[in-house]
Amino acid sequence: MSALQIAVLALAAVLVFWMVGAYNRLMALRTAIGTAWQQVAEALARRGEAAQALAQALREPMAGEAKALDALLAAEAQVREAAAALGARPVRLEAALVLVKGEAAMGAAASRVLALLEQHPLLKVEPAIAEQAVVLADGGSRLAFARQRFNEAGAAYDEAIAEFPTRLLVPLYRFGPAGRL
Length: 181
Fold this sequence. Notes:
By secondary structure, this protein is mainly alpha-helical. The chain has a single domain (21-173), classed as de novo design (two linked rop proteins) (Up-down Bundle). Helices cover 82% and strands 0% of the residues. The protein contains six helices and no strands. Helix 1 runs antiparallel to helix 2 (66-88) and helix 2 packs antiparallel against helix 3 (93-118). It is rod-shaped, with a radius of gyration of 23 Å. It is a single-pass membrane protein.
């Protein structure tokens, strides 16, 4: 073997090892996004259960506010569907955007129901209603923390796919930017 052939083989070996290393790094970052998504999904599920239970508990005493309760349930269903879509592939940008829209609707509907509940102080003292209202209200802070971890994992992944020379491999691996919540 000539020196040129050895040099070409050594260069090819270095290139292959670098490609495998870059792929493994990107996959580890994608896994971190999936792990962070699990925390978001748990917070969303807990808040969704509280919203459903609160809407059912308030259905009879606040019959005049059925539209607000229906809006809360519709927004919760929208968030649940978007979360299921994003849960299948937590890196999908489009699914994250749909979830963000659903979250906006959920926040508005939950705020409205909680404001209506404030106008009925006798309902607030019932244990079932009070507990679900607290879970619904506190769900936002837990969700904010989980969302922050998800966004940080997505930012780390996006930085990695934008770095040179890794960005040369992105089309080969078919990786795209991660979504944010």
